[in-house]
Automatic annotation (TrEMBL):
<dbReference type="InterPro" id="IPR036890">
    <property type="entry name" value="HATPase_C_sf"/>
</dbReference>
<dbReference type="Pfam" id="PF02518">
    <property type="entry name" value="HATPase_c"/>
</dbReference>
<feature type="transmembrane region" description="Helical">
    <location>
        <begin position="85"/>
        <end position="108"/>
    </location>
</feature>
<keyword id="KW-0418">Kinase</keyword>
<keyword id="KW-0902">Two-component regulatory system</keyword>
<feature type="transmembrane region" description="Helical">
    <location>
        <begin position="21"/>
        <end position="44"/>
    </location>
</feature>
<keyword id="KW-0597">Phosphoprotein</keyword>
<dbReference type="InterPro" id="IPR003660">
    <property type="entry name" value="HAMP_dom"/>
</dbReference>
<keyword id="KW-0812">Transmembrane</keyword>
<dbReference type="Pfam" id="PF00672">
    <property type="entry name" value="HAMP"/>
</dbReference>
<feature type="domain" description="Histidine kinase">
    <location>
        <begin position="170"/>
        <end position="387"/>
    </location>
</feature>
<protein>
    <recommendedName>
        <fullName>histidine kinase</fullName>
        <ecNumber>2.7.13.3</ecNumber>
    </recommendedName>
</protein>
<dbReference type="InterPro" id="IPR036097">
    <property type="entry name" value="HisK_dim/P_sf"/>
</dbReference>
<dbReference type="Pfam" id="PF00512">
    <property type="entry name" value="HisKA"/>
</dbReference>
<dbReference type="InterPro" id="IPR005467">
    <property type="entry name" value="His_kinase_dom"/>
</dbReference>
<dbReference type="InterPro" id="IPR004358">
    <property type="entry name" value="Sig_transdc_His_kin-like_C"/>
</dbReference>
<dbReference type="InterPro" id="IPR003594">
    <property type="entry name" value="HATPase_dom"/>
</dbReference>
């Protein structure tokens, strides 16, 4: 028996897996041995019957000079042989059982040793020890599969912790920058005894721009967290909507910036009905089109297409710009990654494509991106068609308590 501690200060006894395997092996071994001894006992009793073939009244003369009826002598021989077989068989069964149980206990312990390593490592795991692995080198069996699966899980956890650290560090840096700008401007202006109204207006303008940038970053972080929280789960809100409408609204919002850069905007916005969260899908389309404007150049091009078929609906947004290496494209969907050089002079948060990816995941869709030969990027979002996705109304009823 082994003591396991489920809660601090409370203990209970229960058989370990090693003990249960040993007991099971012992029961099977003793049972099989007992059956063999019983079969041998029965066979000896049936085989030692030579007198049955003799005539009645036949006698047997023993070595001590006595004469016995053949059948009486046969019964004595059978009884003696059976008793001796039973006694020696039970002794052999006991010896074999002891050796077998001890061997089973040792073999089970050796086979379950990697499980103890998994348990021990799980107890030692912390953020500082995620680099440790079992690295099982035994036979290619179920235990090896379990150890390999545990190591793979630790690899994924390590990557997740590292990604989280980078995310927190980048978010802190992004938020610290506008706050530092605001504090510097305020301190410098207040330290200037000759500052006039114009200087205070200039300071207020800088502080406002910095606060807008910080507010935009916070909003983007909230949208990203909301999208990732619903990724792989049922969306809280699923209503019919159209990605062409979201693209139209996003294009209208950036029309002024597109005109300032003298961009050529080409659209082919056919119906693309889907079922999902309209606010998230609006942000998806808005991020793609804002990126197409932001990472463009003077007299560049932007194109947007929507459409659908029986299985899916899609939104394609592309733009010209400086060249992007296709090998760098997957990294653009990571938080706080900005591709190329920014063209408009406005800095983004680096969360645009991360939000697009998270929204696609939440809606059960996919997103792909391809670097354009002459420079720029084309992003394609594909979501399940509206008629293939059930509508879920996020409603809650409040009932009076009984």
């Amino acid at each position: 028996m082994t003591v396991y501690s489920g809660r601090p200060g409370r203990h209970r006894l229960r058989p370990t897996l090693r003990l249960r395997l040993t007991l099971l092996n012992g029961v099977l071994l003793v049972g099989a041995g007992a059956i063999l001894v019983m079969l041998a006992w029965l066979l000896v009793g049936d085989a030692l019957r030579p007198a049955d073939q003799l005539r009645d009244g036949t006698t047997v003369e023993l070595a001590d000079g006595r004469s016995l009826d053949a059948r009486d002598w046969q019964e004595q021989v059978v009884d003696a042989a059976s008793q001796e077989l039973l006694a020696k068989g039970l002794v052999a069964l006991l010896a074999i059982s002891v050796v077998g149980v001890a061997g089973a206990y040792a073999v089970a312990g050796r086979a379950l040793r990697p499980l103890h390593q998994v348990t021990s490592m799980a107890q030692r795991l912390s953020e500082e020890t995620l680099d440790q692995r079992i690295r099982y080198s035994g036979a290619d069996d179920e235990v090896a599969e379990l150890a390999g699966t545990f190591d793979a899980m630790l690899d994924r956890l390590g990557e997740s912790f590292e990604a989280q650290k980078r995310f927190v560090a980048n978010a802190s840096h992004e938020l610290r920058t506008p706050l530092a700008v605001m504090r510097t401007e305020i301190d410098v202006t207040l330290a200037d005894d000759e500052a006039d109204v114009a200087e205070f207006r200039r300071m207020a303008t800088v502080v406002r721009d910095a606060s807008e940038r910080a507010n935009g970053l916070v909003d983007a972080l909230l949208v990203l967290a909301r999208s990732e929280a619903q990724s792989g789960r049922r969306l809280v809100r699923k209503v019919p909507t159209d990605m062409s409408t979201a693209a139209t609204n996003a294009l209208s919002a950036v029309r002024g910036e597109a005109d300032r850069l003298k961009l050529t905007v080409t659209t082919s916005l056919k119906p693309a009905p889907v079922v999902g969260d309209p606010s998230l899908l609006d942000r998806l389309a808005g991020n793609l089109i804002e990126n197409a404007i932001r990472y463009n150049h003077l007299h560049g091009k932007v194109w947007a297409r929507t459409g659908s078929d029986a299985a899916a609906a899609w939104l394609v947004v592309g733009n010209t710009g400086f060249e992007v290496d296709q090998a760098d494209v997957p990294g653009l969907f990571e938080p706080f990654r900005r591709g190329g050089r920014e063209r408009t002079g406005a800095r983004g948060s680096g969360l645009g494509l991360s939000i697009v990816r998270a929204v696609c995941d939440a809606h059960g869709g996919t997103v792909t991106a391809a670097a354009q030969p002459g420079g720029g990027l084309e992003v394609t979002v594909t979501l399940p068609a509206g008629h293939t996705t059930p509508v879920v109304a996020a409603t809650a009823s409040v009932r009076p308590s009984a």
